[in-house]
Design a protein that fits this description.
- With about 500 residues, the protein is α/β, with parallel strands linked by helices.
- The chain folds into 2 domains: about 240 residues, 3-Layer(aba) Sandwich (Aldehyde Dehydrogenase, Chain A, domain 1), CATH 3.40.605; about 200 residues, Aldehyde Dehydrogenase, Chain A, domain 2 (3-Layer(aba) Sandwich).
- About 40% of the residues lie in helices and about 20% in strands.
- The chain has a 7-stranded mixed beta sheet with strand order 12-13-14-11-10-16-17, with helices on both faces.
- The longest helix has 26 residues.
- The protein starts with a helix and ends with a helix.
- The structure holds NADPH dihydro-nicotinamide-adenine-dinucleotide phosphate.
- NADPH dihydro-nicotinamide-adenine-dinucleotide phosphate (NDP) binds next to helix 9 and helix 10.
- The site of NADPH dihydro-nicotinamide-adenine-dinucleotide phosphate has 29 residues, from helix 9 and helix 10.
Protein backbone atom coordinates (compact mmCIF):
# COMPACT_ATOMS: atom_id res chain seq x y z
CA UNK A 1 0.00 0.00 0.00
CA UNK A 2 1.06 3.61 -0.37
CA UNK A 3 3.46 5.05 2.14
CA UNK A 4 0.71 7.34 3.25
CA UNK A 5 -1.83 4.69 3.99
CA UNK A 6 0.77 2.30 5.32
CA UNK A 7 1.94 4.76 7.90
CA UNK A 8 -1.65 5.63 8.71
CA UNK A 9 -2.50 2.00 9.25
CA UNK A 10 0.62 1.35 11.27
CA UNK A 11 -0.10 4.38 13.34
CA UNK A 12 3.23 6.03 12.57
CA UNK A 13 2.02 8.94 10.45
CA UNK A 14 2.38 12.60 11.40
CA UNK A 15 -1.06 12.43 12.99
CA UNK A 16 -0.78 11.89 16.72
CA UNK A 17 -4.42 10.98 17.42
CA UNK A 18 -4.98 7.22 17.40
CA UNK A 19 -7.96 4.88 17.47
CA UNK A 20 -7.66 1.42 19.03
CA UNK A 21 -9.36 -1.39 17.11
CA UNK A 22 -10.49 -4.28 19.31
CA UNK A 23 -11.86 -7.75 18.71
CA UNK A 24 -15.54 -7.50 19.79
CA UNK A 25 -15.52 -11.02 21.22
CA UNK A 26 -12.23 -11.18 23.13
CA UNK A 27 -11.75 -7.40 23.48
CA UNK A 28 -8.13 -7.98 22.48
CA UNK A 29 -6.36 -5.12 20.75
CA UNK A 30 -6.04 -5.84 17.02
CA UNK A 31 -4.07 -2.68 16.36
CA UNK A 32 -4.25 1.10 16.29
CA UNK A 33 -4.93 3.46 13.43
CA UNK A 34 -4.08 7.10 12.98
CA UNK A 35 -6.73 9.75 12.49
CA UNK A 36 -5.52 11.32 9.26
CA UNK A 37 -5.29 15.09 9.27
CA UNK A 38 -6.93 17.20 6.57
CA UNK A 39 -3.52 17.68 4.92
CA UNK A 40 -3.02 13.92 4.77
CA UNK A 41 -6.46 13.38 3.24
CA UNK A 42 -5.82 16.12 0.69
CA UNK A 43 -2.41 14.64 -0.09
CA UNK A 44 -3.91 11.19 -0.70
CA UNK A 45 -6.51 12.65 -3.07
CA UNK A 46 -3.85 14.65 -4.93
CA UNK A 47 -1.75 11.53 -5.46
CA UNK A 48 -4.84 9.64 -6.63
CA UNK A 49 -5.64 12.47 -9.04
CA UNK A 50 -2.11 12.35 -10.39
CA UNK A 51 -2.40 8.59 -10.95
CA UNK A 52 -5.83 8.71 -12.61
CA UNK A 53 -4.94 9.51 -16.26
CA UNK A 54 -2.47 6.61 -16.45
CA UNK A 55 -4.97 4.22 -14.84
CA UNK A 56 -7.65 5.31 -17.30
CA UNK A 57 -5.23 5.01 -20.21
CA UNK A 58 -4.61 1.34 -19.43
CA UNK A 59 -8.03 0.64 -20.85
CA UNK A 60 -11.06 -1.26 -19.60
CA UNK A 61 -9.76 -4.69 -20.66
CA UNK A 62 -6.47 -4.42 -18.83
CA UNK A 63 -8.22 -3.14 -15.71
CA UNK A 64 -10.64 -6.06 -15.96
CA UNK A 65 -7.73 -8.53 -16.09
CA UNK A 66 -6.30 -6.95 -12.95
CA UNK A 67 -9.63 -7.38 -11.16
CA UNK A 68 -9.79 -11.02 -12.18
CA UNK A 69 -6.25 -11.55 -10.87
CA UNK A 70 -7.34 -9.89 -7.62
CA UNK A 71 -10.31 -12.24 -7.34
CA UNK A 72 -8.07 -15.28 -7.86
CA UNK A 73 -5.70 -13.99 -5.20
CA UNK A 74 -8.48 -13.27 -2.73
CA UNK A 75 -9.90 -16.74 -3.24
CA UNK A 76 -6.47 -18.25 -2.61
CA UNK A 77 -6.13 -16.17 0.58
CA UNK A 78 -9.72 -16.57 1.73
CA UNK A 79 -8.77 -18.17 5.03
CA UNK A 80 -6.69 -15.13 6.04
CA UNK A 81 -9.36 -12.73 4.84
CA UNK A 82 -12.08 -14.58 6.75
CA UNK A 83 -9.97 -14.60 9.91
CA UNK A 84 -9.49 -10.84 9.72
CA UNK A 85 -13.18 -10.18 9.05
CA UNK A 86 -14.13 -12.35 12.02
CA UNK A 87 -11.56 -10.67 14.24
CA UNK A 88 -12.92 -7.21 13.53
CA UNK A 89 -16.64 -7.98 13.50
CA UNK A 90 -17.22 -11.09 15.63
CA UNK A 91 -19.34 -12.65 12.88
CA UNK A 92 -19.47 -16.38 12.16
CA UNK A 93 -17.62 -18.30 9.45
CA UNK A 94 -20.66 -18.35 7.15
CA UNK A 95 -20.88 -14.56 7.13
CA UNK A 96 -17.15 -14.13 6.55
CA UNK A 97 -17.17 -16.72 3.75
CA UNK A 98 -20.09 -15.04 2.00
CA UNK A 99 -18.26 -11.72 2.03
CA UNK A 100 -15.27 -13.28 0.30
CA UNK A 101 -17.41 -15.22 -2.14
CA UNK A 102 -19.47 -12.12 -2.98
CA UNK A 103 -16.47 -9.97 -3.86
CA UNK A 104 -14.67 -12.72 -5.78
CA UNK A 105 -17.70 -13.38 -7.98
CA UNK A 106 -18.43 -9.68 -8.40
CA UNK A 107 -14.88 -9.18 -9.68
CA UNK A 108 -15.41 -12.04 -12.15
CA UNK A 109 -18.66 -10.41 -13.29
CA UNK A 110 -16.85 -7.12 -13.84
CA UNK A 111 -14.09 -8.90 -15.73
CA UNK A 112 -16.64 -10.31 -18.15
CA UNK A 113 -18.96 -7.32 -18.51
CA UNK A 114 -17.28 -4.01 -17.62
CA UNK A 115 -15.22 -3.66 -20.84
CA UNK A 116 -18.36 -4.11 -22.96
CA UNK A 117 -20.41 -1.70 -20.84
CA UNK A 118 -17.69 0.94 -20.97
CA UNK A 119 -17.17 0.69 -24.72
CA UNK A 120 -17.91 3.90 -26.65
CA UNK A 121 -21.21 3.83 -28.51
CA UNK A 122 -21.98 5.11 -31.98
CA UNK A 123 -25.30 7.02 -32.08
CA UNK A 124 -27.28 8.87 -34.77
CA UNK A 125 -26.35 12.56 -35.26
CA UNK A 126 -28.45 15.55 -36.29
CA UNK A 127 -27.63 15.16 -39.99
CA UNK A 128 -27.17 11.51 -40.98
CA UNK A 129 -24.59 10.55 -43.66
CA UNK A 130 -22.57 13.76 -43.29
CA UNK A 131 -22.23 13.58 -39.52
CA UNK A 132 -21.52 10.82 -37.04
CA UNK A 133 -21.56 10.82 -33.26
CA UNK A 134 -20.10 8.76 -30.44
CA UNK A 135 -20.71 8.64 -26.72
CA UNK A 136 -17.69 7.98 -24.53
CA UNK A 137 -18.00 6.96 -20.90
CA UNK A 138 -15.42 8.95 -18.98
CA UNK A 139 -14.54 8.29 -15.34
CA UNK A 140 -15.29 10.99 -12.76
CA UNK A 141 -11.69 11.19 -11.55
CA UNK A 142 -11.08 10.38 -7.89
CA UNK A 143 -13.86 8.50 -6.11
CA UNK A 144 -14.15 8.65 -2.32
CA UNK A 145 -15.53 5.39 -0.90
CA UNK A 146 -16.82 5.76 2.66
CA UNK A 147 -17.72 2.36 4.08
CA UNK A 148 -19.28 0.80 7.22
CA UNK A 149 -18.16 -1.94 9.58
CA UNK A 150 -20.92 -4.52 9.20
CA UNK A 151 -19.47 -6.12 6.04
CA UNK A 152 -15.92 -4.77 5.97
CA UNK A 153 -15.09 -6.70 2.82
CA UNK A 154 -18.39 -6.87 0.95
CA UNK A 155 -19.73 -3.40 1.73
CA UNK A 156 -16.22 -2.02 1.61
CA UNK A 157 -15.34 -3.25 -1.84
CA UNK A 158 -18.59 -3.90 -3.71
CA UNK A 159 -18.67 -0.17 -4.54
CA UNK A 160 -14.93 0.21 -4.87
CA UNK A 161 -13.99 -2.31 -7.54
CA UNK A 162 -16.47 -1.05 -10.16
CA UNK A 163 -15.09 2.46 -9.59
CA UNK A 164 -11.62 1.13 -10.46
CA UNK A 165 -13.01 -0.86 -13.40
CA UNK A 166 -14.47 2.34 -14.84
CA UNK A 167 -11.07 4.07 -14.78
CA UNK A 168 -11.39 6.11 -11.61
CA UNK A 169 -8.80 6.13 -8.88
CA UNK A 170 -10.08 5.69 -5.34
CA UNK A 171 -9.45 6.95 -1.83
CA UNK A 172 -11.20 4.76 0.70
CA UNK A 173 -12.24 5.65 4.23
CA UNK A 174 -13.17 2.43 6.05
CA UNK A 175 -15.03 2.42 9.35
CA UNK A 176 -12.81 2.93 12.35
CA UNK A 177 -14.12 -0.43 13.65
CA UNK A 178 -12.84 -2.46 10.69
CA UNK A 179 -9.85 -0.84 8.96
CA UNK A 180 -7.56 -3.88 8.96
CA UNK A 181 -9.71 -5.96 6.64
CA UNK A 182 -9.73 -3.03 4.22
CA UNK A 183 -5.96 -2.74 4.52
CA UNK A 184 -5.48 -6.43 3.74
CA UNK A 185 -7.75 -6.35 0.69
CA UNK A 186 -6.13 -3.20 -0.68
CA UNK A 187 -2.77 -4.98 -0.43
CA UNK A 188 -4.19 -7.84 -2.53
CA UNK A 189 -5.36 -5.32 -5.13
CA UNK A 190 -1.80 -3.93 -5.28
CA UNK A 191 -0.41 -7.42 -5.71
CA UNK A 192 -2.88 -7.96 -8.56
CA UNK A 193 -1.59 -4.87 -10.36
CA UNK A 194 -3.46 -1.78 -9.13
CA UNK A 195 -0.84 1.00 -8.77
CA UNK A 196 -0.36 2.19 -5.20
CA UNK A 197 -1.36 5.80 -5.83
CA UNK A 198 -4.49 4.68 -7.70
CA UNK A 199 -5.99 3.22 -4.52
CA UNK A 200 -5.33 4.52 -1.05
CA UNK A 201 -6.80 4.27 2.39
CA UNK A 202 -7.26 7.18 4.76
CA UNK A 203 -7.98 6.09 8.29
CA UNK A 204 -9.81 7.88 11.04
CA UNK A 205 -13.29 8.53 12.32
CA UNK A 206 -16.36 10.23 10.87
CA UNK A 207 -14.50 13.55 10.58
CA UNK A 208 -12.01 11.93 8.17
CA UNK A 209 -14.90 10.80 5.95
CA UNK A 210 -16.37 14.30 6.05
CA UNK A 211 -13.08 15.91 4.98
CA UNK A 212 -12.63 13.40 2.16
CA UNK A 213 -15.86 14.67 0.57
CA UNK A 214 -14.26 18.12 0.26
CA UNK A 215 -11.57 16.89 -2.16
CA UNK A 216 -12.83 13.96 -4.26
CA UNK A 217 -14.81 14.11 -7.51
CA UNK A 218 -17.51 11.58 -6.56
CA UNK A 219 -18.66 10.02 -3.29
CA UNK A 220 -19.85 6.47 -2.78
CA UNK A 221 -21.23 6.17 0.73
CA UNK A 222 -22.61 3.19 2.64
CA UNK A 223 -23.87 3.69 6.15
CA UNK A 224 -26.71 5.10 8.18
CA UNK A 225 -29.43 7.37 6.86
CA UNK A 226 -28.47 10.11 9.34
CA UNK A 227 -24.86 10.21 8.12
CA UNK A 228 -25.96 9.79 4.50
CA UNK A 229 -27.93 13.01 4.76
CA UNK A 230 -24.82 14.86 5.98
CA UNK A 231 -22.77 13.34 3.15
CA UNK A 232 -25.36 14.45 0.58
CA UNK A 233 -25.38 18.01 1.95
CA UNK A 234 -21.61 18.27 1.87
CA UNK A 235 -21.28 16.78 -1.60
CA UNK A 236 -24.10 18.99 -2.93
CA UNK A 237 -22.28 22.12 -1.77
CA UNK A 238 -19.44 21.13 -4.11
CA UNK A 239 -21.85 20.02 -6.86
CA UNK A 240 -20.24 16.59 -7.06
CA UNK A 241 -22.23 13.42 -7.68
CA UNK A 242 -22.79 10.74 -5.06
CA UNK A 243 -24.56 7.49 -4.33
CA UNK A 244 -25.92 6.57 -0.93
CA UNK A 245 -26.62 3.05 0.34
CA UNK A 246 -28.43 3.60 3.60
CA UNK A 247 -30.55 1.90 6.22
CA UNK A 248 -33.58 -0.29 5.66
CA UNK A 249 -36.68 -1.59 7.45
CA UNK A 250 -37.22 -4.50 5.15
CA UNK A 251 -40.61 -6.24 5.11
CA UNK A 252 -41.29 -9.93 4.54
CA UNK A 253 -44.82 -10.93 3.48
CA UNK A 254 -46.21 -14.41 3.99
CA UNK A 255 -49.27 -14.92 1.83
CA UNK A 256 -52.12 -17.35 2.40
CA UNK A 257 -50.68 -19.94 -0.02
CA UNK A 258 -47.06 -19.79 1.19
CA UNK A 259 -44.92 -22.83 1.84
CA UNK A 260 -44.88 -22.10 5.55
CA UNK A 261 -41.87 -24.28 6.31
CA UNK A 262 -39.79 -22.44 3.73
CA UNK A 263 -41.09 -19.07 4.91
CA UNK A 264 -40.28 -19.76 8.57
CA UNK A 265 -36.73 -20.87 7.84
CA UNK A 266 -36.30 -17.98 5.37
CA UNK A 267 -37.44 -15.51 8.01
CA UNK A 268 -34.94 -16.74 10.58
CA UNK A 269 -32.12 -16.78 8.07
CA UNK A 270 -32.86 -13.32 6.76
CA UNK A 271 -33.58 -11.60 10.07
CA UNK A 272 -30.49 -13.02 11.75
CA UNK A 273 -27.92 -12.81 8.95
CA UNK A 274 -24.86 -11.10 10.41
CA UNK A 275 -26.72 -10.97 13.73
CA UNK A 276 -29.27 -8.68 12.09
CA UNK A 277 -26.57 -6.09 11.42
CA UNK A 278 -27.36 -5.93 7.74
CA UNK A 279 -29.07 -3.20 5.79
CA UNK A 280 -31.06 -5.81 3.83
CA UNK A 281 -32.04 -8.05 6.73
CA UNK A 282 -35.72 -8.79 7.35
CA UNK A 283 -37.05 -6.45 10.02
CA UNK A 284 -40.85 -6.69 9.76
CA UNK A 285 -42.79 -9.87 9.10
CA UNK A 286 -46.44 -9.68 8.01
CA UNK A 287 -48.20 -13.04 8.14
CA UNK A 288 -51.68 -13.50 6.71
CA UNK A 289 -54.25 -14.91 9.13
CA UNK A 290 -54.86 -18.37 7.59
CA UNK A 291 -51.24 -19.47 7.98
CA UNK A 292 -50.32 -17.46 11.09
CA UNK A 293 -50.55 -20.18 13.76
CA UNK A 294 -48.71 -22.76 11.72
CA UNK A 295 -46.03 -20.21 10.78
CA UNK A 296 -45.49 -19.15 14.38
CA UNK A 297 -45.07 -22.72 15.50
CA UNK A 298 -42.44 -23.34 12.81
CA UNK A 299 -40.56 -20.10 13.57
CA UNK A 300 -40.37 -21.09 17.22
CA UNK A 301 -39.16 -24.51 16.21
CA UNK A 302 -36.33 -23.07 14.08
CA UNK A 303 -35.45 -20.38 16.65
CA UNK A 304 -34.90 -23.08 19.26
CA UNK A 305 -32.51 -24.90 16.96
CA UNK A 306 -30.23 -21.92 16.36
CA UNK A 307 -26.61 -22.43 17.25
CA UNK A 308 -25.51 -19.16 18.89
CA UNK A 309 -21.82 -19.60 19.49
CA UNK A 310 -18.38 -18.13 19.65
CA UNK A 311 -16.97 -21.13 17.78
CA UNK A 312 -15.64 -21.74 14.28
CA UNK A 313 -17.27 -23.67 11.47
CA UNK A 314 -20.30 -23.34 9.25
CA UNK A 315 -22.64 -24.89 11.80
CA UNK A 316 -22.63 -21.68 13.89
CA UNK A 317 -25.77 -19.75 12.99
CA UNK A 318 -25.38 -16.58 15.03
CA UNK A 319 -22.13 -14.98 16.18
CA UNK A 320 -21.34 -11.87 18.17
CA UNK A 321 -22.64 -8.40 17.49
CA UNK A 322 -19.96 -5.88 16.59
CA UNK A 323 -20.57 -2.87 18.75
CA UNK A 324 -22.15 -2.00 22.06
CA UNK A 325 -24.13 0.91 20.59
CA UNK A 326 -26.14 -1.37 18.30
CA UNK A 327 -26.61 -3.93 21.08
CA UNK A 328 -28.08 -1.27 23.36
CA UNK A 329 -30.37 -0.08 20.54
CA UNK A 330 -31.51 -3.69 20.01
CA UNK A 331 -32.26 -4.14 23.72
CA UNK A 332 -34.16 -0.84 23.79
CA UNK A 333 -36.34 -1.91 20.84
CA UNK A 334 -37.20 -5.22 22.50
CA UNK A 335 -38.04 -3.43 25.75
CA UNK A 336 -40.15 -0.77 24.02
CA UNK A 337 -42.10 -3.46 22.15
CA UNK A 338 -42.78 -5.52 25.30
CA UNK A 339 -43.87 -2.43 27.26
CA UNK A 340 -46.31 -1.60 24.43
CA UNK A 341 -47.85 -5.10 24.40
CA UNK A 342 -45.66 -7.35 22.26
CA UNK A 343 -44.89 -10.92 23.37
CA UNK A 344 -41.29 -12.08 23.55
CA UNK A 345 -41.54 -15.77 22.70
CA UNK A 346 -37.84 -16.56 22.36
CA UNK A 347 -34.45 -15.07 23.33
CA UNK A 348 -34.11 -11.34 23.81
CA UNK A 349 -31.35 -11.41 26.42
CA UNK A 350 -27.60 -10.84 26.41
CA UNK A 351 -25.38 -13.93 26.51
CA UNK A 352 -22.37 -12.79 28.59
CA UNK A 353 -21.37 -16.46 28.93
CA UNK A 354 -20.37 -16.33 25.24
CA UNK A 355 -18.90 -12.83 25.03
CA UNK A 356 -19.64 -9.19 25.83
CA UNK A 357 -21.69 -8.56 22.67
CA UNK A 358 -23.65 -11.81 22.27
CA UNK A 359 -27.44 -11.55 22.22
CA UNK A 360 -29.91 -14.42 22.04
CA UNK A 361 -32.08 -13.70 18.97
CA UNK A 362 -35.41 -12.20 20.04
CA UNK A 363 -38.66 -13.39 18.47
CA UNK A 364 -41.45 -10.87 19.08
CA UNK A 365 -45.11 -11.38 18.20
CA UNK A 366 -48.14 -9.12 18.45
CA UNK A 367 -46.07 -6.14 17.36
CA UNK A 368 -47.70 -3.00 15.95
CA UNK A 369 -46.60 0.03 14.00
CA UNK A 370 -46.72 2.07 17.22
CA UNK A 371 -43.58 0.25 18.38
CA UNK A 372 -40.02 1.39 17.58
CA UNK A 373 -39.17 -2.11 16.36
CA UNK A 374 -41.57 -1.66 13.43
CA UNK A 375 -40.57 1.91 12.56
CA UNK A 376 -36.91 2.52 13.38
CA UNK A 377 -34.09 0.62 11.77
CA UNK A 378 -33.10 -2.51 13.72
CA UNK A 379 -29.42 -3.42 13.64
CA UNK A 380 -29.54 -6.53 15.79
CA UNK A 381 -31.02 -10.05 15.97
CA UNK A 382 -34.78 -9.43 16.23
CA UNK A 383 -37.61 -11.21 14.41
CA UNK A 384 -40.73 -9.01 14.70
CA UNK A 385 -43.95 -10.73 13.59
CA UNK A 386 -47.36 -9.18 12.95
CA UNK A 387 -50.59 -10.96 12.03
CA UNK A 388 -52.52 -9.32 9.16
CA UNK A 389 -55.97 -10.01 7.73
CA UNK A 390 -54.92 -10.50 4.12
CA UNK A 391 -52.38 -9.66 1.43
CA UNK A 392 -53.80 -6.16 0.85
CA UNK A 393 -53.18 -5.27 4.46
CA UNK A 394 -49.69 -6.78 4.30
CA UNK A 395 -48.82 -4.63 1.27
CA UNK A 396 -50.25 -1.49 2.87
CA UNK A 397 -48.26 -2.00 6.08
CA UNK A 398 -45.10 -3.00 4.22
CA UNK A 399 -45.21 0.35 2.40
CA UNK A 400 -45.95 2.26 5.61
CA UNK A 401 -42.29 3.06 6.26
CA UNK A 402 -39.88 5.85 5.52
CA UNK A 403 -37.43 3.22 4.26
CA UNK A 404 -37.52 1.26 1.01
CA UNK A 405 -34.44 -0.91 0.63
CA UNK A 406 -35.23 -4.60 0.21
CA UNK A 407 -38.04 -7.07 0.92
CA UNK A 408 -39.38 -10.58 0.39
CA UNK A 409 -42.62 -12.41 -0.36
CA UNK A 410 -43.49 -16.06 0.20
CA UNK A 411 -46.22 -17.54 -1.99
CA UNK A 412 -46.72 -20.66 -4.10
CA UNK A 413 -48.23 -18.52 -6.89
CA UNK A 414 -45.11 -17.19 -8.59
CA UNK A 415 -46.99 -14.86 -10.96
CA UNK A 416 -48.88 -13.29 -8.08
CA UNK A 417 -45.62 -13.05 -6.14
CA UNK A 418 -44.11 -11.02 -8.98
CA UNK A 419 -47.18 -8.79 -9.18
CA UNK A 420 -47.12 -8.07 -5.48
CA UNK A 421 -43.38 -7.44 -5.59
CA UNK A 422 -44.06 -4.58 -8.00
CA UNK A 423 -46.47 -3.04 -5.49
CA UNK A 424 -43.80 -2.81 -2.79
CA UNK A 425 -41.85 0.43 -2.48
CA UNK A 426 -38.46 -1.28 -2.19
CA UNK A 427 -35.36 -1.30 -4.36
CA UNK A 428 -35.32 -5.09 -4.57
CA UNK A 429 -37.61 -7.98 -3.65
CA UNK A 430 -37.01 -11.72 -3.37
CA UNK A 431 -39.92 -14.07 -4.04
CA UNK A 432 -39.60 -17.27 -1.97
CA UNK A 433 -35.96 -16.44 -1.32
CA UNK A 434 -34.27 -13.88 0.87
CA UNK A 435 -30.75 -12.57 0.41
CA UNK A 436 -30.27 -13.55 -3.20
CA UNK A 437 -30.27 -10.14 -4.87
CA UNK A 438 -26.94 -8.89 -3.43
CA UNK A 439 -25.17 -12.02 -4.71
CA UNK A 440 -26.73 -11.74 -8.19
CA UNK A 441 -24.15 -9.46 -9.74
CA UNK A 442 -26.17 -8.60 -12.85
CA UNK A 443 -28.87 -6.98 -10.68
CA UNK A 444 -28.85 -3.40 -9.42
CA UNK A 445 -29.79 -2.94 -5.79
CA UNK A 446 -30.21 0.04 -3.51
CA UNK A 447 -32.83 2.04 -1.74
CA UNK A 448 -35.94 4.04 -2.42
CA UNK A 449 -37.24 6.71 0.00
CA UNK A 450 -34.79 7.21 2.91
CA UNK A 451 -32.85 4.06 2.06
CA UNK A 452 -30.65 5.69 -0.50
CA UNK A 453 -29.93 7.31 -3.80
CA UNK A 454 -28.53 5.39 -6.77
CA UNK A 455 -27.81 1.72 -7.26
CA UNK A 456 -24.90 -0.63 -6.81
CA UNK A 457 -24.52 -3.87 -8.76
CA UNK A 458 -25.24 -4.71 -12.38
CA UNK A 459 -24.57 -2.36 -15.29
CA UNK A 460 -26.08 0.50 -13.26
CA UNK A 461 -23.44 0.00 -10.56
CA UNK A 462 -20.65 0.42 -13.10
CA UNK A 463 -22.08 3.23 -15.20
CA UNK A 464 -22.70 5.51 -12.19
CA UNK A 465 -18.93 5.88 -12.08
CA UNK A 466 -18.84 7.43 -15.53
CA UNK A 467 -19.94 10.64 -17.19
CA UNK A 468 -21.17 10.30 -20.76
CA UNK A 469 -19.37 12.55 -23.20
CA UNK A 470 -20.88 13.07 -26.67
CA UNK A 471 -18.62 13.80 -29.63
CA UNK A 472 -20.21 14.75 -32.96
CA UNK A 473 -18.08 14.83 -36.12
CA UNK A 474 -19.16 16.67 -39.26
CA UNK A 475 -17.41 15.23 -42.31
CA UNK A 476 -18.24 18.10 -44.71
CA UNK A 477 -14.89 19.80 -44.31
CA UNK A 478 -15.04 21.18 -47.83
CA UNK A 479 -18.51 22.74 -47.59
CA UNK A 480 -19.33 26.43 -48.16
CA UNK A 481 -19.03 28.45 -44.94
CA UNK A 482 -22.33 29.81 -43.62
CA UNK A 483 -23.20 32.15 -40.77
CA UNK A 484 -26.72 30.85 -40.22
CA UNK A 485 -27.74 27.59 -38.64
CA UNK A 486 -30.52 27.31 -41.19
CA UNK A 487 -29.26 27.83 -44.72
CA UNK A 488 -31.65 26.56 -47.36
CA UNK A 489 -29.90 23.19 -47.80
CA UNK A 490 -29.96 22.50 -44.07
CA UNK A 491 -33.58 23.60 -43.82
CA UNK A 492 -34.63 21.27 -46.63
CA UNK A 493 -32.67 18.38 -45.14
CA UNK A 494 -34.22 18.92 -41.71
CA UNK A 495 -37.72 19.01 -43.19
CA UNK A 496 -37.12 15.73 -45.01
CA UNK A 497 -35.66 14.20 -41.86
CA UNK A 498 -38.73 15.22 -39.88
CA UNK A 499 -40.85 13.00 -42.08
CA UNK A 500 -38.36 10.10 -41.96
CA UNK A 501 -37.98 10.39 -38.20
CA UNK A 502 -41.71 9.96 -37.70
CA UNK A 503 -41.37 6.41 -39.06
CA UNK A 504 -37.75 5.30 -38.66
CA UNK A 505 -36.25 4.87 -35.18
CA UNK A 506 -32.58 4.70 -36.15
CA UNK A 507 -32.08 7.91 -38.06
P1 LIG B 1 -22.35 5.35 9.86
O1 LIG B 1 -23.26 6.11 8.97
O2 LIG B 1 -22.13 5.82 11.23
O3 LIG B 1 -20.88 5.26 9.21
C1 LIG B 1 -20.62 4.84 7.90
C2 LIG B 1 -19.28 5.38 7.46
O4 LIG B 1 -19.32 6.80 7.41
C3 LIG B 1 -18.12 5.03 8.42
O5 LIG B 1 -16.94 4.88 7.70
C4 LIG B 1 -18.06 6.29 9.28
O6 LIG B 1 -16.82 6.44 9.91
C5 LIG B 1 -18.31 7.36 8.24
N1 LIG B 1 -18.82 8.63 8.76
C6 LIG B 1 -19.37 8.90 9.98
N2 LIG B 1 -19.74 10.21 10.03
C7 LIG B 1 -19.44 10.75 8.82
C8 LIG B 1 -19.60 12.06 8.25
N3 LIG B 1 -20.15 13.07 8.93
N4 LIG B 1 -19.18 12.27 6.98
C9 LIG B 1 -18.63 11.26 6.26
N5 LIG B 1 -18.45 10.02 6.75
C10 LIG B 1 -18.85 9.76 8.01
O7 LIG B 1 -22.88 3.88 9.80
P2 LIG B 1 -22.31 2.62 10.54
O8 LIG B 1 -20.90 2.43 10.19
O9 LIG B 1 -22.62 2.72 11.99
O10 LIG B 1 -23.16 1.44 9.84
C11 LIG B 1 -24.43 1.11 10.25
C12 LIG B 1 -25.48 1.77 9.38
O11 LIG B 1 -25.17 1.65 8.01
C13 LIG B 1 -26.82 1.13 9.54
O12 LIG B 1 -27.78 2.11 9.73
C14 LIG B 1 -27.07 0.37 8.23
O13 LIG B 1 -28.37 0.20 7.84
C15 LIG B 1 -26.31 1.18 7.26
N6 LIG B 1 -25.84 0.32 6.19
C16 LIG B 1 -26.42 0.37 4.95
C17 LIG B 1 -26.02 -0.49 3.95
C18 LIG B 1 -26.61 -0.46 2.57
O14 LIG B 1 -26.06 -1.08 1.67
N7 LIG B 1 -27.72 0.21 2.33
C19 LIG B 1 -24.98 -1.46 4.18
C20 LIG B 1 -24.44 -1.43 5.51
C21 LIG B 1 -24.86 -0.57 6.46
P3 LIG B 1 -16.59 5.81 11.38
O15 LIG B 1 -17.16 4.43 11.38
O16 LIG B 1 -15.12 5.78 11.50
O17 LIG B 1 -17.30 6.70 12.32
Amino acid sequence: MSAQSKTSMNGAAHSTAQIEVRNPVSRELIGSIAICSEDEVRGAVERARGAQPAWEARGAKERAYILRAFADLLWARRTDAMRLIRQETGKNDTGAFLEVYGIVTEAYWLYHHAPRLLRSQRRPALLPFIQYAKVHFKPHGVVGCITPWNYPLYNGFTDLIPALAAGNTVVMKPSELSPFTANYIVDLLYQAGVPEDALQIVTGDGSTGAVLIDYVDYVSFTGSTATGRKVAERASKRLIQYTLELGGKDPLLILEDANVELAAAGTIRSALENCGQACVSTERVYVTEPVYDQYLQRVQHYAQQLNVSVGDGFSVDVGSMTNERELKRTEAQVEDAVVKGAKLISGGKRRPDLGPLFFAPAVLTDVTHEMDVMREETFGPIVAIMKVKDTDEAVRLANDSEYGLSGAIFTRNLTRGEEIAKMLQSGDIGVNRTYAVPGSHALPWGGRKHSGIGRRGGPEGVMRYTQPQSVLVDTMIGSVPSLTLLDSLTMNTLLALRVLRRYLPFI
